[in-house]
């Protein structure tokens, strides 16, 4: 979902900039890096609290405003990449069942899919609350396959992370399509290769033999 259907990281970075602007001190990239530490969740507001504490500007009321600002800006900037909705419509009209498998918590996933107008294209949305595990563990993928009544050999995993999406998909025997346009991470593991590399989401249509527009 995130960074495959839309640019979440870009929205997060801009949200961090708006928080720093409100505080009048700090650095947006330094705030964004707080979310990458793995101490709290990738979208946990405790990352903002920690950053404010490091700057010596933490105050409960200010923290609440920063969190609201962060969430409002982030969600407001989330928009489907060009060609995503047309491609999903083509897949659905061709009778291909679609599921979202995401590590985002259910409320965040639903808000973003609602905001982008994409939620109705998917038969199921699998989050960690549903499967009990996060990627790269295969639990969410297996749950989605079960809900779609699909065997791995007849399914495709499309994702922007070679480690968290492509590797577990290949392990299960799925065809894998790497959304390279959404990979914001530094460096890629040389030992993980996808069957298909996408420069844009719309290219997916040609790989499954449909017209995406």
Automatic annotation (TrEMBL):
User: PANTHER family from the entry?
Assistant: PHOSPHOGLYCOLATE PHOSPHATASE
InterPro entries hit by this protein: HAD-like_hydrolase_sf, HAD-like_sf, HAD-SF_hydro_IA, HAD_2, HAD_sf
Q: NCBIfam families, per this entry?
A: HAD-SF-IA-v1 (TIGR01549), HAD-SF-IA-v3 (TIGR01509)
* UniProt-listed GO biological process terms: DNA repair
Recorded GO CC terms: cytosol
Q: Which UniProt keywords apply?
A: Hydrolase
Q: Give the record's family classification.
A: Belongs to the HAD-like hydrolase superfamily.
What's the name of the protein? HAD-superfamily hydrolase, subfamily IA, variant 1
Is this entry keyworded Hydrolase?
A: yes
Q: Name any one GO molecular function.
A: phosphoglycolate phosphatase activity
Supply the source organism for this entry. Answer: Methanoculleus marisnigri (strain ATCC 35101 / DSM 1498 / JR1)
The superkingdom listed in its UniProt entry is Archaea
Q: Does the keyword Hydrolase apply?
A: yes
């Amino acid at each position: 979902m995130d960074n495959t259907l839309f640019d979440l990281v870009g929205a997060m970075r801009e949200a961090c900039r708006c928080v720093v602007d409100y505080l009048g001190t700090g650095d947006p990239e330094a705030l964004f890096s707080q979310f990458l530490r793995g101490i709290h969740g990738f979208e946990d507001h405790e990352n903002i609290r920690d950053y404010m504490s490091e700057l010596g500007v933490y105050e409960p009321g200010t923290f609440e405003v920063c969190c609201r600002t962060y969430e409002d800006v982030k969600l407001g900037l989330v928009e489907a990449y060009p060609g995503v909705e047309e491609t999903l419509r083509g897949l659905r009209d061709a009778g291909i069942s679609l599921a979202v498998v995401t590590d985002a918590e259910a409320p965040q996933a639903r808000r973003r899919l609602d905001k982008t107008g994409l939620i109705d294209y998917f038969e199921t949305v699998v989050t960690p609350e549903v499967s009990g595990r996060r990627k790269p563990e295969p639990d969410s993928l297996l749950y989605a396959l079960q809900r779609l009544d699909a065997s791995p050999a007849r399914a495709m995993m499309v994702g922007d992370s070679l480690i968290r999406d492509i590797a577990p998909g290949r392990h299960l025997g799925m065809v894998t399509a790497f959304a390279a346009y959404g990979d914001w991470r530094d460096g890629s593991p040389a030992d993980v290769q996808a069957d298909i590399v996408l420069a844009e989401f719309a290219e997916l249509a040609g790989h499954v033999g449909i017209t995406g527009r």
